[in-house]
Write a structure and sequence with these properties.
Structural class: alpha+beta
Helix content: 40-55%
Number of strands: 17
CATH class of the largest domain: Alpha Beta
CATH topology of the largest domain: BirA Bifunctional Protein, domain 2
Number of helices: 13
Distance between the termini: 51 Å
CATH architecture of the largest domain: 2-Layer Sandwich
CATH superfamily of the largest domain: Bira Bifunctional Protein, Domain 2
Radius of gyration: 27 Å
RNA sequence: GGAGGGAUGUCCGAAUUGGCUAAGGAGCCGGACUUGAAAUCCGGUGAAGCCGAAAGGUGUGGGGGUUCGAGUCCCCCUCCCUCCGCCA
């Protein structure tokens, strides 16, 4: 969410940001109109309240002295009615205003390339090179099914489409992967480990920006106020919702494993085979709360920390800067990490590292004081996948497959797997 | 699921049958005393936060209601505590 004052004073810049994101259903003219209306109503309302406060004191005084206050009370009855009317008008105007403000996305950082879709993303760097196969390689879903470590049919039977059983070495590999990732970030990158709730409430979903705009992308539990989290970003960022921390607390770095749940409402027919796009998947998420001055340095660092996972797994990948059209609602700048997937003959996203600047912090009320007694200000929040486990597993199956259909276990995972080959 | 109790500043904790400015203490800041410190004493500060250029408004877990006026009365909700039941 953007600051009201910021929008007022930088309408051109905000309009430009909307244009760059190709958003044309938000009217800043309407915003200004409502904003002015609200301020007028507020002023009139507050004057009446002031009058009421003063007169009520006077009534109390008269009553204590045993004098008659009935004419003042009668007068105030009318004032109270007027205040009620203003309150109602104000509420209506504020709701309309919120409807606009809550749907204005973050302003992209100036470094973000302008473009409509992923084809306009900017390549930052590549690491490793795609493996040359001298045999007919297979997609991960065939490898997994033949090795009996992925079971799509039974996943569909028991739950539904996009829900899959991992079995035996497959289940073990999944567990090894997120343990390896957590160990790396906690031991090498200075993160505190967090195991969050997988359910979150409406306020939390609003805080990180999933609501109100993306309601249909999430699963909500029937007859409750709980949502299944689409990422650990939600519970972990909201851990500090409505809190004011001291500068000494920063930076806060949390690494959290969680299952993630996504309705994939707009993805019918996309990636229907394999485990690339599931309703439930595992992910290790890195969340940083930092001093605003440092957030872009931290974004670089965070991205490197996520990349480290791929380097240690020796999977070829590339880093791209998302263009304005591909950037998510709350982010000001995002790097995607994409791993090479032979069966797709392209790179697929396994991590998204974003700086949200103060956008989430404002929605969620996450502040800090630079020194005791100083005015509080919003922190900057960042997060990045470190990494999406299911997609990484798929990448390992495809990249580490052997001609006989067996899988060589990446070296760093062998201590976790207690085996060198899956066959 | 059932019964009861609770939520007021940074912390502890008051506030009569609704009415003046939401006590008091701890803390924090300044000073006195002291070689220095502690202790003590004096003074100050303190109700976050939010809106507002300011005046002012709002603000006693959250939301609503009654009232000229609500920490106080009524309704709903959340969280915490105790006990019973159930459960991994």
């Amino acid at each position: 969410m953007l600051d009201l004052n910021f929008i007022r004073e930088n309408k051109k810049q905000v309009q430009k940001a909307l244009d760059k994101r190709f958003i044309d259903d938000i009217s800043l003219a309407k915003f200004s109109e409502l904003d002015q209306k609200r301020r007028d109503l507020l002023y009139k309302n507050e004057q009446l309240r002031h009058k009421r406060n003063i007169t009520s004191d006077k009534i109390g005084e008269l009553k204590r002295e045993g004098k008659d206050a009935s004419s003042l009370i009668k007068e105030m009855q009318q004032v109270a009615d007027q205040i009620d009317q203003y309150d109602q008008k104000l509420k209506e105007v504020e709701e309309q205003l919120e409807h606009i403000v809550h749907r204005i996305p973050n302003v992209p950082h100036e470094d973000v390339p302008v473009g409509e879709d992923e084809s306009d993303n900017r390549l930052q760097r590549e690491w490793g090179s795609p493996r040359e196969f001298d045999f007919d390689f297979k997609p991960h879903w065939e490898l997994g099914t033949e090795l009996d470590i992925l079971d799509f049919d039974r996943g569909s039977k028991v739950a539904g489409s996009r829900l899959t059983f991992l079995k035996k070495a497959g289940a073990r590999l999944e567990r090894s992967l997120f343990n390896f990732m957590l160990d790396l970030h906690i031991k090498e990158h200075g993160y505190d480990e967090v195991f969050p709730p997988f359910l979150a409430n409406e306020e939390s979903m609003f805080g990180t920006g999933q609501l109100p705009k993306f309601r249909e992308d999430m699963f909500k539990l029937e007859n409750t106020d709980y949502y299944l989290i689409p990422t650990a970003e939600v519970p972990v960022t909201n851990m500090h919702r409505e809190e004011i921390m001291s500068a000494a607390d920063l930076p806060l770095k949390y690494a959290a494993y969680s299952a993630c749940f996504r309705a994939e409402a707009g993805a019918h027919g996309r990636d229907t085979r394999g485990i690339i796009r599931q309703h439930q998947f595992n992910k290790v998420e890195l969340v940083n709360f930092v001093d605003p001055e440092k957030s872009y340095d931290v974004l670089e660092q965070l991205t490197k920390e996520a990349e480290k996972v791929l380097r240690l797994l020796e999977l070829p990948y590339r880093v791209v800067t998302l263009c304005t059209g591909d950037l998510t609602f709350s982010a000001a700048k995002t790097y995607d990490l994409e791993v090479w997937m032979p069966a797709y003959d392209t790179y697929r996203e396994v991590s998204s590292c974003s700086n949200f600047e103060d956008f989430q912090a404002r929605r969620a009320g996450i502040k800090y004081r630079s020194e005791p007694g100083a005015d509080s200000q919003f922190v900057h929040t960042l997060n990045g996948s470190g990494l999406a486990v299911g997609r990484t597993l798929a990448a390992i199956l495809e990249n580490y497959q052997n001609e006989d259909g067996s899988i060589t276990v990446p070296e760093v995972l062998q201590p976790y797997m207690d085996q060198e080959i899956i066959d």
